[in-house]
């Protein structure tokens, strides 16, 4: 059984590889696989902005294709194979759940370059990239801690993966620093994009007394839900969501993928592309803090901007000790800074958070 | 004022032709939709219906038709038995999830052992999981006369929560650095449902779907139980006088459709999907309801309908990637198929009467 599979696999790889070679061509073709619709106003919207920036930058030298709302699983593998067969030279897969499909398809198309966002599996022709969103979460936490009157912050979380847990911790640490009475209520939506569920979560949190809503989901539904309610503030997620400024949206985390996508496409054109692991934050411009609106008092705004600049300059790390884990055990000593390995696999809350991570 | 009047003798021939007519109408209306979006409608229709079967990359797509159609056919065959008897299992999606969890759980329990019986055991566990999940609405119906439509549907959401819990807890990959999702079963030889002949898309689940088509045909046409199912659907009173035990029929129909949905889930998780993850289910259980009706609840019809539905998925994806059609347009296109099928069905059985408004 084993040997037959290996032989058969080799035959398939040869036929697929041959097809990819036969499709060699100008211009360079860059593909994008999106988890939501390009009009989600958040995560996928910003990746698509990056794609458009690639088109604008390279003009006729590059052709881009994309497929939106691709489920994370067997369907992603087909969408990827399809793009590779049709001659894509570089494919960006922009959601965590595309990790195994990306690795599987990449093994069949050794001449095609793949870039997987937010994952941890690499290969000779698979790079990974992500942004240090938690740097932006720290700034949000500071503003949230200063602005709340009820001392209750509502957090709409997507999936309990390290990226999301990091964001919760970063926001909590910095809210707590300026407001020792702060409490976080976390609702797990188990989706990246579902406006109805996200709106339900926002309404539930507001009913429980939260007057700050943070979201790690991609739609603008929580913003819309908070819009009608007095004294509730929100932050744009992934995209600026400035149509909800100055209230309820008081600031935002913006993902700016354009420079990265342009650089990686250039590398393919130059023949210098290599498999790398990129994790950039506010400093290199992959994460931006959206305009802090006038609803925020001037002194709070100035502090938040100072924190942003300190993180960008490398003078401040959002996870700096002393910090303890939720169970009371020591994590970081005074002045110690978290290492990337721990952050990448973060599966614990910091001390003070009362919720438990679902499993 | 429009009135619908029942045709005294609806044409049998037209009845058989309605799916074909619905497909043609969908092509026309879809073409208009694509033209309105600024795409060449002929190219779009060709990309969806022709290219996956006979186009440049058909060698890959043909196999994918089986991969996508297999679970749809397997689930729809099970559902059609109940639907014929007026027993409505709407929760195949949940039974599909539970089958996958049970099957994968058995496989992962043996990891990394390499015994020949692991995969057969997983198949049994998958079928048993789906069967037991379907027994909840079945027993509630036979004991307390609850509505199986509501119970089976709502259990889908319970199953989804269980799935999330399993991906984050019990079945999570211990080597996965804390990320959700189980080990990849495709990389575990003894538990993998790999392609039987590489490049064809043919895996055990597709084979099971073909076997189910044949067995369902025999059951409905050559077996007493099949006769009872048909009789109950057509005339419940006559069925009762004819000695049909309604409770037994409920248990049989829900149980069979649950077991087949569970099998589909197991074959999917051990094969194309590879792992238990929070987003494992993508709606096969619901789409199979459309497939069952598109195939006229007939085994051979379901076989064709499943492949046709798979074609609209695969061709639709290709149209997205190559023509830049939005995903929503493809979903609308698939929706049209069901809409036209129902519309043509109504017009086969009823005729429209234009009547003046009268006081009753």
Write up what this structure looks like:
The complex is a heterodimer of chains A (359) and B (360). With 359 residues, chain A is of the alpha/beta class. Chain A has 2 domains: 2-131, Response regulator (Rossmann fold), CATH 3.40.50; 133-254 and 287-344, Response regulator (Rossmann fold). Chain A has 11 helices and 14 strands. In chain A, the strands form 3 sheets. A 6-stranded parallel sheet of chain A has the order 2-1-3-4-5-11, sandwiched between helices. Chain A has a 6-stranded mixed sheet with strand order 7-6-8-9-10-12, with helices on both faces. Chain A has a two-stranded antiparallel ribbon with strand order 13-14. Mean pLDDT of chain A is 89; it is low at 1-24. Chain B has 360 residues and is mostly helical. Chain B has a single domain, classed as ABC transporter involved in vitamin B12 uptake, BtuC. Helices cover 70% and strands 3% of the residues of chain B. Chain B contains 14 helices and 2 strands. Chain B has a two-stranded antiparallel ribbon with strand order 1-2. Chain B is globular and about 75 Å long. The model of chain B has no long low-confidence stretch (mean pLDDT 89). The interface between A and B is large, with 47 and 43 residues.
